[in-house]
Amino acid sequence: MDHVWGSQLNDKKELARKWKGTTSDPNTDFPSAEEGDVCLDYVKKGFYEFTNNFWKRQGIPPGLIGLWDQETIPDGWLKCDGNNGTPNIQGRFVRGASSSAGTTGGSASVSHSHTATGSDVWYGTLVKVWEGGSPLDYVKYFRHYHPVTSTAVTIDLLPSYIALHFIMKG
Questions:
Q1: Is 102 within 8 Å of 95 (Cβ atoms)?
Q2: Would you say residue 49 lies in a domain?
Q3: Nearest to residue 39, comparing CAs of 3, 66, 64?
Q4: Which residues have C-beta within 8 Å of that of residue 9, sequence separation ≥ 6?
Q5: Whole-prediction pTM value?
């Protein structure tokens, strides 16, 4: 069973040409299919499932996640906030799954550190003083150093974005 949009048409342009008309008949215009295949009809704007050798119009499948730009969530949909069996996608970016859907990763914040190494530096002054015809060496050493200070800085690493609600069909 191949659960892929337009499973029997490899050329998406052919699929678009086929569905650009003003009407569509699922049993003649849709691609050949296997039991359980699902297609989206762009003309009639509906989901169809191939069941018992017939394309049957379905509502939006439960569990489908979409984006919503208003505060009031429509009837029959749930906000993806971790309640009522929904994943908590609030404040998160979505990444296409390469293996299992629902895998999480990344971090909300990053940290790093710097290490400064060094040692005390001493310098000295040699003064030759002449006393009675003989030089007298006078040496004075001084400690010289530079303190290292750091300040924590917060950096926003987010790209430009627009905040939308993730909602899931109940």
A1: no
A2: yes
A3: 3
A4: 15, 18, 31
A5: 0.48
Q: Is 122 helix (H, G, I), strand (E, B) or coil?
A: strand
Q: What angle do CA 48, 65, 17 make, to 5 degrees?
A: 40
Contact 35, 1 (CB under 8 A): yes
Q: What is the pLDDT of residues 129-147, one digit of tens each?
A: 666 667 666 667 777 677 7
Note the pLDDT tens digit of each residue in 45-90: 677 777 888 877 777 778 889 999 899 998 889 999 999 999 999 9
Query: Residue 14: phi, psi to the nearest 5?
Result: -65, -40
Residue 158 DSSP class:
P
Give how many domains the chain has, as a whole number: 1
Q: Which two tokens stand for residue 6?
A: 């337009």
CB-based contacts of 105-112 (< 8 A; 24+ apart in sequence): 110/157
User: Residue 5 domain-assigned?
Assistant: yes
Q: Which of 37, 21, 5 is nearest to 29 (CA)?
A: 21
Report the candidate in 93, 90, 95, 66 with the shortest Cα–Cα distance to residue 170.
66
Query: Taking Cα atoms as reference points, which of 93, 111, 98 lies closest to residue 161?
Result: 93
